[in-house]
Amino acid sequence: MTSPLEARSLSLNREGNAVLNGVSFAVAEGEVFALLGGNGAGKSSTLLAFLGFLEPSGGEILVNGKSVADDIAAARSAIAYLPEAAALYGHMTAYENLNYFLDLAGKSVKKADYDDALNRVALPREARSRRLQSYSKGMRQKTAIALALLRETPILLLDEPTSGLDPVAIDEFHDLVKDLAGAGQTILMVTHDVYGACQVADRVGLLRRGQLVGSFAAENGERIDTETVHAAFAERETT
Amino acid sequence: MNMMLRIAKEEWRLWLRSKVIVVATLIVAVLLAVTSVLTVNRVASEQSQRLAQQVAAEATFFAQPDRHPHRMVHYGHYAFRPPPPLAAFEPGVDAVTGQSIFLEGHRQNTPMFADTKAAADLGGFASLNPANLYQLLLPLLLIVLGHALLLRERESGTLAVMLAQGQSGVSLAMGKALALLAVIAIFMLPLIAVSIHSVVQGENGLAAVSLVGGYFLYLCVWGAIVLAASIILKHRAVSLGALIFIWLFAALIVPRFAINASSAAIDAPGKIESDLVMLAEQRKLGDGHNAADPAFQRLQKEVLEQYDVEKVEDLPINWRGVVASYSEAELTDLLNGYAENRMEQEANQSGLFNLFGLASPTIAIGSVSRTLAGTDLSTHHRFLRESEALRFDFVQSLNEVHAKELAYEDDLNRSSDPEAERRTRVNSEAWRVLDEFRFTPDSASDRVDRASFAFGMLLSWLILACGVAFFAARRVRV
User: Fold this and answer.
1) Which residue of A83, A104, A106 is in closest CB contact with B157?
2) Beta-strand (E) ranges in B2-129?
């Protein structure tokens, strides 16, 4: 069966520096795969490669079994992407942001659906008609998550999704990710939050200096053991 | 197309919500409106004044009493060049050339109000008028508005989100271009209003539409340059700095250099310098007031032979009138030779200056603007030629009256004999030899033809800038 997301011996260069070196993994349908790594490990670059923003210097990257290089448009239409910095427009309200980006995606959504998505991410109702320049980082992040939800794509790429969220919102977000995966969405998230990754992911890949150096999977309905992953993460980061 | 409109709409939302940009735009709009109104009023007033002065000058000439025709040759006449209707937008060379000229016998006077030593100075960069604002200020406003069009999206991370929604770099760039195009369309409104006013004032629609088209093309060139920079460059400050440098280079440095280069390459002496050089040659022609001047001996021989008489006193025509006419023709030939040479050098200077339009779209639009408005050097030269033809015609017509209607003996004795003096007075009806002079701009099609090369340069600039923007947009990276 074709994996919605697959990297085959993927190597990437950015501005002359190798950021990924022969990384291979696949994410199955309905699976949450977390790529865990420190700063500069190549996590965000991996996501950008799936979107066709970075061309592999080696190997291949596939979305729904098709090479991204062959059909970038098909890859992007299948993917909703949540960047690390919740890149939205400060001069627009939450509604206006959602409306604009969904228009760009060619997706027609009713206002009630906007509210549903914003309710799911618990963005206060009174804030929705305010411009984002008055939002906290967490509120911006929630709006960006709502956008990703409204895309209703089969694949979700999340770059440090809980960055800026308070602990309650983080828990709510984790529940949301599990719900989405349960509904069949394939999710690849990159993070340096060991706890978060273990909480939500079915599998965790450990990325270090551009190489996949470890993999941990949830077994028998249990979550991945945070201590084990943390120990491996800390050990590899310090060696 | 819908997607481009959508992207453009959001760019507009940003601009409208950004108070700095709104205030900057308002300031420019007020400046444009005020300058346009002031220039329109000034030109309308100058136009009616000069026309009235032309009519008054003719009436004054015709109203002169009976007198010796050569006194009328020296009494002289005026020719006025009223500003064409589109001068309300583009005064062109009018600011640095004379607009009226005193016409008299034996002289080609300099147009009054100013001398134009160097034709390349006729760019008109010195004074504030609507054309200057369009050529200099509006590109600057486009730079302020658009230097971060796409770059801002990259810096804030929204470019990745936009592209991730399935939009291509080209469609984003086209949406941004459409937003800028709408700004340019709004910028065109004052010019359109002035053009409509000029058509009401008698300007040809083709010239007015072409002028609007030329400036639209020019602002589109700047829009495309701004867009290309916002796609290619990676930092807002770098983009703003680079674009301001390009603006300085294209709008100020190249025109200044072009003026100096064309003046240095083609040395065009001014009217006064030409006159000094010409004086020596002029002396050889003889003094037309002195029929006994040795310079006219050959003429005398020929005329005597023609009429088969021995002495000038036996001629059926007034020998002094014949000399005056001959002398005027010879002198005019000499003067015209120098004038044509000077105008040719000025035209060459101007042509060389205009060629710098290949290095600066501002020079190209300046050329288009002055030509279409009928305020270019070529139009000024035509005024000089037509006023000179008027001068020569009335002087020679008066000389003909002198030769045919005045007895030679009376002419000789008029200083000592009051009766002879009375008989040399010609009926003032003779002053009707003066033709009515109404200077009008070239036909619109002639002006459009003359502006076509500069139009071509603007079009080349647009294709080049759009091409760069397009290829940069195809390779846009987050």
Assistant:
1) A83
2) 77-80, 100-104, 107-108
